[in-house]
Design brief:
Blueprint: E1 9-15, E2 18-25, E3 32-36, H1 50-55, E4 59-63, H2 82-95, E5 101-106, H3 109-119, E6 124-130, H4 141-145, H5 164-171, H6 173-182, H7 184-191, H8 234-247, H9 250-254, H10 259-266, E7 279-284, H11 299-304, E8 308-313, H12 319-322, H13 324-338, H14 340-344
Parallel strand pairs: 3-4, 3-5, 5-6, 6-7, 7-8
Antiparallel strand pairs: 1-2, 2-4
Helix pairs in contact: 2-3, 5-6, 7-8
Length: 348
């Protein structure tokens, strides 16, 4: 087995007027694997995965999505609907001259990857996603609420369950965004934390967002709490914060404002919304928002994916950063078991 360079470099590409900034590692003639981040992250969210896949001969790519980092920014909520984000990713694939890629997503990157698989299956060798199962968030907020575990979230007390925070965006977008913009460094320092096993089976704080008057009990600025050194370094935090300070949260938060448009787009999927290609789903045991351990959140995925592998990781929501070794192992085991032909035709 050849060992390849793991050096990560930064690149930019323009497709259909949209600029995508991305990180890249590995040989350009290797099998392509594209990692898609979520809210409020960046391409560096995959910093633990890119060198590992590159070292094994994959051409590993991690773009900044629209509204993030050094990629294009847009002025209207509707510019951040899934259909546009998917078009950016297909344009990126075209720019590399590949017909297909393996796609890996997390958080809002998961709906993007699911939509690529369900609308453009001919552009996928296979897809893997962390935390957000298929046929949920990319099909609108109501699809998620319908699968809430009502033993934990009685409907009379928690009508939207743990997804209540997403309704807060819709009802109080300016307030939510202004709170985040007030101190992006404190926001990311607070968010990027490991999972807490003690929270298992209890309501998530996101279920009370509207009752509490917004994030942080309605405070206008995020509290200053110590960094979780098990998840991010100080240098990592500074990179996240600098990008959010420069761009603001309008773009990232607008991903939550397109549920109706996203439903319409999801209804245009091919193959009646079923996925035939290999699929890997990594569930986070201590992710109490995208909770698929005790709830029914993963049921639609199991019905619609014909070649599904599932792995449970003892992690919180930021799995790729909290448990990189486990994530990398799961990805590599899936890749070697499902994609022998890619290895046979490459220098891996």
């Amino acid at each position: 087995m050849a060992i390849h360079t793991t050096e990560i470099s930064e690149q930019m590409v323009t497709t259909n007027g949209h600029v995508t900034h991305y990180l890249t590692a590995g040989p350009e003639n290797g099998p392509l694997i594209i990692f898609v981040h979520g809210w409020p992250e960046l391409s560096i969210s995959w910093r633990h995965q890119l060198p590992v896949l590159a070292g094994l001969g994959f051409h590993a790519i991690a773009p900044d999505l629209r509204g993030y980092g050094h990629s294009s920014l847009y002025e209207h909520h509707e510019d951040y609907a899934q259909e546009h984000v998917v078009a950016d990713m297909i344009g990126l694939l075209d720019a590399f001259g590949h017909e297909r890629s393996i796609w890996v997503g997390h958080d809002w990157g998961s709906p993007v990857v699911w939509n690529i698989a369900s609308h453009h299956p001919n552009r996928c060798h296979g897809v893997a996603n962390l935390c957000v199962p298929f046929a949920t968030l990319e099909r609108g907020l109501d699809a998620c609420i319908a699968l809430v575990n009502r033993d934990i979230y009685p409907e009379d007390e928690f009508p939207a369950g743990q997804w209540d925070y997403q309704l807060f965006y819709q009802e109080n977008f300016e307030k939510a965004t202004r709170t985040f913009d007030s101190n992006p460094y404190n926001i990311v320092k607070l968010l990027f934390r490991k999972g807490d096993p003690d929270g298992f089976g209890k309501p998530a704080g996101t279920a009370l967002t509207r009752k509490r008057g917004g994030w942080f009990g309605g405070a206008q600025v995020a509290p200053d709490i110590p960094r979780d050194e098990d998840v991010v370094t100080e240098a990592d935090l500074r990179i996240y914060a600098e990008a959010l300070e420069r761009n603001g949260f309008f773009g990232p938060d607008s991903y939550y404002m397109n549920h109706a448009a996203n439903i319409t787009y999801a209804n245009k999927s091919v193959n009646e919304g079923y996925l035939d290609m290999p699929v890997l789903f990594l569930a986070a045991q201590y992710d109490y928002v995208c909770e698929s351990i005790t709830s029914r959140l993963a049921e639609p995925m199991r019905e619609r994916c014909k070649a599904l592998d599932e792995v449970v990781v003892k992690s919180g929501h930021w799995m790729a950063q909290e448990r990189p070794a486990e994530v990398n192992f799961a990805l590599l085991r899936w890749l070697t078991s499902r994609f022998h032909h890619l290895f046979a035709n490459s220098t891996v």
